[in-house]
């Protein structure tokens, strides 16, 4: 079997905050179409890893390649333009705008053509069509005119995934998309993510092991900024070190 060249290749990534190494020599290879979960205790460095990939933080050392080209140290808008999109651990919506407006703004700001108020109908319509398509894929098509701030918590988080998807990313990073959700909302979110096209490679930080086991092809366990274990969910679950530092307690 020949392995497809990785869509994301991370080598020796380290980030210090003062004396603390929040991430310490992390290497990762994500294959195209892969769904990878990043798990680990609070403070393990999961969100820091995302911030380094998306350019919200600069690495102290290490290299990141996406789609065959280096992206290390690029600012967030440049990383987004190459096809990496993310949702945040805390909400990132415009609460007073409708769902459709939230999605349309995201679709229009996809970096591959700047939003133009006086542009042609086509330039206006393309983001609108994209917004509708995304609303459907995140299961919210019936609520397009609802103001984002009035959606239920679960719907808001679904909309956040939609906003991240609206730029047609090749790689989607989701930081705890089910945090704070009821079991029903978590199930709905999981089904929605399972239904996303495989063309969108997925990196998901997740604490809910049911979500991880049903969604992830492979799992990477971070602990004190280092990769403690990596493998299928069953392999990682059977690893006594993983059980000791994570699954035995918080998981
Ligand atoms: N901007 C920052 N300045 C200083 N320290 C930071 C900063 N961001 C993160 N840290 C520290 O780096 C470590 C890793 O934090 P990070 O947010 O990446 O963890 P996490 O794995 O996402 O945790 P959680 O599960 O709680 O979201 C923590 O000790 C945190 O306090
Ligand atoms: Mg985090």
Characterise the protein shown here.
It is a single chain. By secondary structure, the protein is α/β, with parallel strands linked by helices. Helices cover 34% and strands 24% of the residues. The chain has a domain at 1-77 and 204-251: Rossmann fold (3-Layer(aba) Sandwich). The strands form two sheets. It has a six-stranded mixed beta sheet with strand order 6-7-8-3-9-10, sandwiched between helices. A four-stranded antiparallel beta sheet has the order 2-1-4-5, covered by helices on one side. The longest helix is centred in the middle third of the chain and has 17 residues, at 121-137. Bound molecules: adenosine-5'-triphosphate and magnesium ion. The site of adenosine-5'-triphosphate has 12 residues, from strand 2 and helix 1.
């Amino acid at each position: 079997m020949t392995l497809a060249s990785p869509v994301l290749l991370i080598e020796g990534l380290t980030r210090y905050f003062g004396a603390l190494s929040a991430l310490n020599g992390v290497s990762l290879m994500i294959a195209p179409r892969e769904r990878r979960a990043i798990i680990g205790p609070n403070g393990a460095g999961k969100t820091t890893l995302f911030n380094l990939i998306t350019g919200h933080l600069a690495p102290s050392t290490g290299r990141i390649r996406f789609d065959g080209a280096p992206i290390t140290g690029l600012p967030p808008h440049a990383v987004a333009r190459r096809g990496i999109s993310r949702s945040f651990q805390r909400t990132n919506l415009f609460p007073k705008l409708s769902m459709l407006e939230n999605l349309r703004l995201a679709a229009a700001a996809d970096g591959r053509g700047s939003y133009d108020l006086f542009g042609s109908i086509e330039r206006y319509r393309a983001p609108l069509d994209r917004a509708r398509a995304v609303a459907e894929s995140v299961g919210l098509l019936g609520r397009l005119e609802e103001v984002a701030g009035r959606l239920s918590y679960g719907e808001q988080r679904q909309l956040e995934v939609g906003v991240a998807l609206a730029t047609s990313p090749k790689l989607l990073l989701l930081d705890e998309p089910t945090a704070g959700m009821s079991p029903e909302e978590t199930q709905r979110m999981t089904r929605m993510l399972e239904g996303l096209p495989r063309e969108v490679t997925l990196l998901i930080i997740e604490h809910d092991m049911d979500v991880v086991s049903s969604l992830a092809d492979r799992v990477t366990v971070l602990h004190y900024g280092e990769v403690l274990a990596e493998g299928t969910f069953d392999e990682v679950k059977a690893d006594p070190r993983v059980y000791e530092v994570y699954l035995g307690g918080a998981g």
